[in-house]
């Protein structure tokens, strides 16, 4: 068996410890170092009596020959500079979402990875959950029929982030899920968004995003940091069935409803054409494996490096999500006016 790949986690705040734990537990990886400007945070992640090095200096990590790859879990504004330095040092890189605060920097990261012949991956964590994999397969097999609408609700009492608004903090999850489950990925022709800051926090804490899919389905995403109730629900309505994903209900995470609305058969009679009936069928609850998505994510990162191929969530996937976020911000700044997102060139990461 090949020797484990050496990895360093940069950023040991809220999310970095989850990455460190999963790299540590995965047989394809050897966690070599944890780096944070705040030494105490890195020390806490590594724990006592460990051989994993603690450091505060990114350059020192990048100079280590035993570090094949880095995982960047620092605030979004720092992603591009750290990733570009890591790629220049010949390291493979996985970056937390969002890839960068703007698509200009993100495109540079994609090009730098291509030029260096290194893997650039984005941690779109949800894409590695059994639920998303089930939904992708169900849509691809046509089990839901033609997709009519997708509704995402992601609301809770959230940490008001210093650097991003709620749209940039939470909507990347739903956009990355869309990118993974829709045949052909995320490619809306129009995006409109509204955000509000009812408490005067200085940034949108509640936002609603609307977009369309390549096949003409309509998508609504609601994100909110002010809700005392935590909801993580997605409803995907198709002509045959409707799938409901409640990520907070492990016993019934996904249910597939064989019920819905039917419009009567078309005929010469106008009344007959508009007749609506309700189809009442079974509800199926598929058994899903319970495993941590981040373990599959770090496994995919190692496999992509070993097999010299793009990972399932590569830099281009990160760019597709960014292009929609940028369009959403532009729309929100203009009272919800629909905005056409820039097209991502999948060959070179250019934004057109
Ligand atoms: N995939 C997910 O589900 C998920 C969940 C939460 C956060 N995130 C992402 O993870 C990233 C980090 O978020 P967080 O909530 O952990 O932030 P955080 O502020 O809690 O932690 C960031 C850490 O980075 C350190 N840091 C900042 N600049 C540094 C530098 N130049 N060198 C070394 N260390 C540096 C800080 O000291 C801090 O400890 C963000 O991009 C966020 O969007 C992803």
UniProtKB/TrEMBL annotation:
It comes from the Bacteria. Transmembrane segments: none annotated. It comes from Rhodococcoides corynebacterioides. InterPro entries: Gfo/Idh/MocA-like_OxRdtase_N, Gfo/Idh/MocA_Oxidoreductases, GFO_IDH_MocA-like_dom, NAD(P)-bd_dom_sf. Signal peptide: none annotated. This is Gfo/Idh/MocA family oxidoreductase. It holds the Pfam family GFO_IDH_MocA. Residues 132-243 form the GFO/IDH/MocA-like oxidoreductase domain. PANTHER family: BILIVERDIN REDUCTASE A, GFO_IDH_MOCA-LIKE OXIDOREDUCTASE N-TERMINAL DOMAIN-CONTAINING PROTEIN. Residues 6-124 form the Gfo/Idh/MocA-like oxidoreductase N-terminal domain. Residues 332-352 are annotated as: Disordered.
